[in-house]
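Data card: per-record layout.
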Amino acid sequence: MPISVAVAGASGYAGGELLRLLAGHPEFEVRVVTAHQNAGQRLGAVHPHLVSLAELELQPTEASVLAEADLVFFALPHGASGAIAARLPDDVVAVDCGADHRLTSKDAWDAFYGGEYHGAWTYGMPELLLEGGAAKQRENLPGATRIAVPGCNVTAITLGLAPGVAAGVVDAHDLVSVLAVGTSGAGKSLRPDLLASEIMGSASAYAVGGVHRHTPEIVQNLTAAGGEGVSISFTPVLVPMSRGILATSTARLAPGVSAADVREAWEGAYAGETFVRVLPAGSFPRSNDTTGANTALMGVAVDEHAGRVVVVSAIDNLVKGTAGAAIQSANLALGLPETAGLPVNGVAP
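The structure for this 349-residue chain is written out next.
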């Protein structure tokens, strides 16, 4: 018997990417799709590329509708999923791609999001290093019925920096990251700054000065990896590409650490991982190397003159940054092969 699936927020970019991947999953069957303004329409009217699911009708996003499925994915804006998820039966597995259940600290939620705090769910980043690298978050996912998917920027930065923090080869007090981010990360909302005439041929920084809502989540992750007094300054830059993140993250080297120590820390952290790959020395990923794939690719170098590690990490914000991570975590929660339904090869050109 296939596992029945519902997707809340199916008309958006994240919802559409979930459906694209779910359509090819060997164990999941999409039966319910919901939306807000688009409720009542055929799915094919809002996602013409999802040919195999085109005749599904978008229903209202209500707990009673979603509860018809065994597994529910939420692809809603922050603040929208918490109240609905709270009304789902306990035996329904819920995976939230939004921010409502990521943060373990209510104070951090109040400072960066505001509104009702719904508590933290099991965190959906299987490759996250814990306790100085002694464990990974993957071990906490089997049997989980409530899963919080990481933010896309969080994924690119956390996976890029966690090996150095866990191994103690970098100073967790001095972390900096600048990200080139595709426009789909902002969702489908109609905003002047997302018009083609504003985006094409231009790049613009946003959430500058430590105010981005993903900041406390990054600190939370790198602290879990073993960092003490974690401090990061990160600046996202909107660039004219529809999807993808290229994060350039740097960290001050700990005293006495060599370039060989650095390479050993990163390669050891992700040895055997299917979806996270450290490229050979001197190689660095492009954002479109990950397009359509559930991969995080990274290159690592040491800037000897500045005494810093430089990590360039690339993900598809809609796959490894959202929908792919959600499905990967659901696979683990339900005892399925972790890689089921998830591509490792990107799309080019």
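Known properties of this structure: The two ends are 38 Å apart (CA to CA). The first helix runs from residue 13 to 22.

See the next section for split statistics.
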